[in-house]
Amino acid sequence: MFTLKSIETATQDIKKSRFRAVAAPIEDEQSAKAFFAAHSDPSANHNCWAWRIGQNYRFSDDGEPSGTAGRPILAAIDGQSLDRVTVVVTRWFGGILLGSGGLVRAYGGTAALCLKAADKIELVERVRATIACDFADLALIKARLTAHGVMIAGESFTDTGAVLTIDLRKDAADEMLVLVAAISRGKAIVSMEN
Fold this sequence. Notes:
With 194 residues, the protein is an alpha+beta fold. Helices cover 33% and strands 37% of the residues. The strands form 3 sheets. Strands 2-3-6-4-5 form a 5-stranded antiparallel β-sheet, with helices on both faces. It is rod-shaped, with a radius of gyration of 24 Å. 34% of the residues are buried.
């Protein structure tokens, strides 16, 4: 899954109607609502939108026939394997009716055009773990973990060693735990947080 790096905009004219899509990364439903409020144009005929955060999603046709605007925008988001993304497509009516199929293509196509042009970053699921190790193993464990892209979120010391709090990729967690066990010859105590 991917999300957007920053806000992206795309515009196209279809049978004298102007369609403008604005897409952005979001963290929650409130940020999506704030984005719609900031990027909707009250002078336009329609401001249709969609957002997805994990399994949660919403969309709005904003007065267009049911299923012809919001759902195609959401399909454009899903079609590019995006998450934590919102898109608002604004339409200024040009006097020519597009029909249901034309609206689906116009809204979905404008959203897809915008999303294709956007810079994307991979969403990586992370887990947190703690590692209790001896001073003798500490430097090597830290060096190997950081070399593998593991983020050290905290470090505290005991009488005999240290306790590291780390954030690591969920898909690489088992590999990193085997690495820590090998470095410490099985002496380090690792616990995963839920």
